[in-house]
Amino acid sequence: MVQIPFNQPYYTGQEIEYIQDALAKRTSGDGIYTQKAAELIEERIGCRRVLMTTSGTHALEMAANLLGLRPGDEVIMPSYTFPSTANSILMYGAKPVFADIDERTLTLDPDDVIRKLTPRVKAIFPVHYGGVACNMDRIMEIARCHKLLVVEDAAQGVNAKYHEKYLGTLGDMGCLSFHATKNYISGEGGALLVNTTNEAIWEKAKVIRQKGTDRERFLQGEVEQYSWVDWGSNYTPSDLLMALLSAQLEAMDEITALRKKIYDFYYEKLATFAKESLRIIKIPLGYDSNYHLFYIILSSSQERLRVQKGLKEKGIDAFTHFVPLHLSPMGQSLGGWVGQLPVTERVSAGLLRLPLYAGMTRPECEYVVKALLEILTKGN
Ligand SMILES: Cc1ncc(COP(=O)(O)O)c(C=O)c1O
Fold it and tell me: Which residue segment(s) compose the domain that 27 sits in?
């Protein structure tokens, strides 16, 4: 039987050469490939400063630290995201306040952000979902009005744009992920984009990443020896992984174009079938996706299970996505309750992600669409 996985890494061939070169140069962390990856991101995305990190999670943790979050502070974020967004806030004793999402993009709903504002709110952590941006104009306007800082969780939004600006460069800081499930990968890996003009934040970011030392200044010849200057950890990725990532970043256009073809095929074939019982999203004008996900939204969790099982029987892996954080065991222990965020709850119950990876062939896409339409028609 045909087997279609949900995801598969796509390698260009250059990866091995760069990894061998990194090995030959006996680099560990912050070697030439870490620098190369940072430069490739800087050039492409046009951000002020980049620090490569061990993961998107660690980039978020660094950002939360740099904001100076402390007990009593609140941070508004969506519940429809990966736990790392909330963990980074909890790590510093602050409270994640969950806001609902906009049905059109499944990202933070600015109107609900306004409803969740209190004098204790210090920051907003918008999450760009599936490669499609949040309404950043409105989020930044709210942040400006209320003097809040903004950290974009762009783990899934690398190389995607909002009105010509790359995701991760619109807020004060942005966090990217190069996890194996993302578009451009190093297995594990991430980056912190520091966009603020506040020099102190940039200096502190370099210290936090280097175990609380001023090693960066030492490497620049600014101090004779480096020592412990602040709290920190080790958020420096292995240069071997950054060698792999450098090859992926150089192939960003190629990878994105391949993903777009699959996305467009799904969209074209399913748009005519879309109705109340099967929703697909239309990417809003001015939003450039990186085609990270293609998902459908079915009418209920029962219908989703039926479709998912039907696809599995035909050899196709299709997956649900986030359990809303406010309904997860941890979220409930923090006070989350059923009915708290109606759009998040409805959408998450029906959402099913279809296979999408750069190496997916046209016959494979056709097989998925045919199987899906057969299952959907049978259910009517
Ligand atoms: C929205 C979101 N935030 C954060 C993360 C964490 O990224 P990483 O797996 O690189 O730690 C992920 C990824 O898996 C994610 O999807």
Answer: 14-250
Pairing of strands 351-353, 287-288: unpaired
Would you write out the chain's pLDDT as a tens digit for each of its 380 residues? 899 999 999 999 999 999 999 999 977 888 999 999 999 999 999 888 999 999 999 999 999 999 999 999 999 999 999 999 999 999 999 999 999 999 999 999 999 999 999 999 999 999 999 999 999 999 999 999 999 999 999 999 999 999 999 999 999 999 999 999 999 999 999 999 999 989 999 999 999 999 999 998 998 899 999 999 999 999 999 999 999 999 999 999 999 999 999 999 999 999 887 776 789 999 999 999 999 999 999 999 999 999 999 999 999 999 999 999 999 999 999 999 999 999 999 999 999 999 999 999 999 999 999 999 999 988 76
Residues framing ligand 1 (Cβ under 6 A): 55-57, 81-82, 84-85, 127, 153, 155-156, 177, 179, 190
- Count the domains in the chain: 2
Assess whether 152 and 271 both reside in one domain: no
Query: Which CATH number is 92's domain given?
Result: 3.40.640.10
The pick from 52, 54, 55, 57 for probing ligand 1's pocket by mutation, whose C-beta has the most ligand atoms within 8 angstroms, reads 57
Say whether both 213 and 278 belong to one domain.
no
Picking from 285, 346, 351, the residue whose alpha carbon sits closest to that of residue 318 is 351
User: 311 C-alpha vs ligand 1 centroid, how far in Å?
Assistant: 26
283 and 214 in a single domain? The answer is no
Whether residue 264 sits in one domain with residue 135: no
DSSP code at position 253? H
Q: How far apart are CA 152 and CA 174, in angstroms?
A: 5
User: What DSSP element (H or E) covers 173?
Assistant: strand 173-177
| Cα 364 → chain centroid | 26
Out of 250, 273, 301, a domain closes at 250
pTM of the model: 0.97
